[in-house]
Amino acid sequence: MRTPTIDTLAADGVLFERHFTNAVPCGPSRACMHTGMYLHNHRSGTNGTPLDARFTNWALEVRRVGYDPVLFGYTHTAPDPRYLEPDDPRLGTDEGVLPGITPIVDMATHCGPWRDWLLARGYPIPDDHGATYGQRREVAGAPNVPRPSLYDSAHTDTFFLVQSAIDYIETVNGDDAPGWCVHLSLRAPHPPWIAAAPYHARYAIGSLPGCVRHDSAEREGSLHPWLDTFLHRGRNQSHADDRRHRLLQASYYGLMAEVDDNLARLFACVRDLGAWDDTLVIFTSDHGEQMGDHWLYGKAGFFDQSYAIPLVIRRPDGARAGRVGVFTEHVDLMPTLLDWLGIEVPRQCDGHSLMPFLVGGAAPRNWRDAAHWEFDFRDPDVEGHLGLTQEHCLLNVIRDRNGKYVHFAKLPPLFFDLEQDPSELTDRVGSAAHRERVNDYATRLLSWRMQHADKTLTHFRVTREAGLTTRQ
Q1: Which of 302, 345, 383, 446 could anchor a disulfide with 406, C-beta 3.0 to 4.6 Å?
Q2: Dihedral sign, CA of 162, 44, 397, 13?
Q3: CA-to-CA distance for 273 and 62, rounded, in angstroms?
Q4: What are the phi and psi torsion angles at 250 (to 5°)?
Q5: pLDDT at position 182
Q6: What mean pLDDT comes out for the span 385-394?
Q7: What angle do CA 204, 206, 211 make, to 5 degrees?
Q8: How far apart are CA 203 and CA 257, in angstroms?
């Protein structure tokens, strides 16, 4: 994988080597990132589960000090229906806009701005918005090369969103306001994995890494009832045909190359405006991708492939560069941004500011020694197949450098010895040799949940003698 722009950003900034999202898929992960809260507190557990309006978020907080945070792309925020009329159009999509952010280009599955732009350039547009991303060009005589997108590389959704952000920054840079604040949320490399030329042919299918998995989907599914259920859902199981899989994989890598090249255009714009050394850059993703590992496509369950994600933060002055090996999580991003701007971090936040790492300091005392994440897999088909209710369809994970423990609400737990089994192929939860370790991880996971229950009012105390007192 060649990403020279992101590599340069990492060399100039701080690369967090063990960064994990706290939930998947898109909506739950972004809810954690936007609010600084774990899933069991914000409870927006699936795409479409409303985000409770009583929670603040980074956009609302930076707006209070004079910034106008703007959006290019999508935040995937389902609105709280209790504050809307039943016929409110915002209830017609789970891809709503985060409260507090100004949508300049609001674009996800519904991609009207991009479609209008394509129409003006003479492209045929399908009636279905989602199908706009899936149009391919016919190419003869290249069976081992993915079919490219119908659109030229200067007309893709990635190019369009980045160019829209560039146009905005060129317009507002230098205004008398405190500055500009852009949330650029690119869809690529999201499915359907269709890359424009020349990115579709950037990676030869024979050069790509193989999948990490057992020799059959049936054997993989024997690991756990949840995994067996998901592998029997057509959209989740990867292709057994290796060539067909590698064509998708090559497109996936090509889309990442396209993202890297377009970030180069964006960063060049900021430099040309003389704003690079006044701009904090945070680069990350909402989730990972199984891409055939464990016979899965998409993002789900408990495997690292779905949750281990990039995080690079570059300080405006470029004074601190390096690598950080401690565990960091998506809930840390809101506290970090607010801390950088000198804004008090709301008590709702479960994460912690990464500022000590950005200024060259050591990890704060009591910094986490593991990553934690949660997955809400409620779905009528899954519930029926596994004999569960909605409230049973949850799992929690604690993962450190040596092991991973997965606890299900009403299914058997799992334990992976990552020292001996880094690929997570063998469950050791029933092994007598691992019993003590399993108990230790389960205890630590319970303690984590207990320590991170909602704490909105727990620092207050009302007494007859002193009235309302607080304790930080």
Answers
A1: 302
A2: positive
A3: 23
A4: -65, -40
A5: 98
A6: 96
A7: 115
A8: 10
Q: Coil, helix or strand for 261? A: helix
Whole-number percent of the chain with pLDDT over 90: 92
- As a whole number of angstroms, the distance between CA 86 and CA 44 comes to 20
Quick count: other Cβ atoms within 10 Å of Cβ 185? Answer: 18
Contact 31, 38 (CB under 8 A): no
DSSP code per residue over 430-469? T-GGGHHHHHHHHHHHHHHHHHTS--SSTTEEEETTTEEE
Pair of tokens at residue 164: 């829209």
Residue 245: Cβ within 10 Å count: 19
DSSP β-ladder status, 467-470 and 460-463: antiparallel
CA-wise closest residue to 221 among 204, 196, 202, 238: 238
Cβ-contact 374, 452 below 8 angstroms: no
What residues are annotated to the active site? 26
- Per-residue pLDDT at 233: 85
Q: Show the tokens assigned to 207.
A: 């050069």
pTM of the model: 0.96
- Starting at the edge strand found earlier in the chain, the sheet holding 23-24 runs 23-24, 371-376, 394-399, 403-408, 414-417
Q: Contact, 56 vs 347, CB < 8 A?
A: no
Q: What is the pLDDT of residues 352-362, one digit of tens each?
A: 999 999 998 88
Q: Which domains does the chain have, with CATH numbers?
A: 4-364 (3.40.720.10), 373-470 (3.30.1120)
Tell me the pLDDT tens digit for each residue of 58-89: 999 999 999 999 999 999 999 999 999 999 99
What letters, b where the CB count within 10 A reaches 16 and e where it falls short, cover 251-263? bbbbbbbbbbbbb
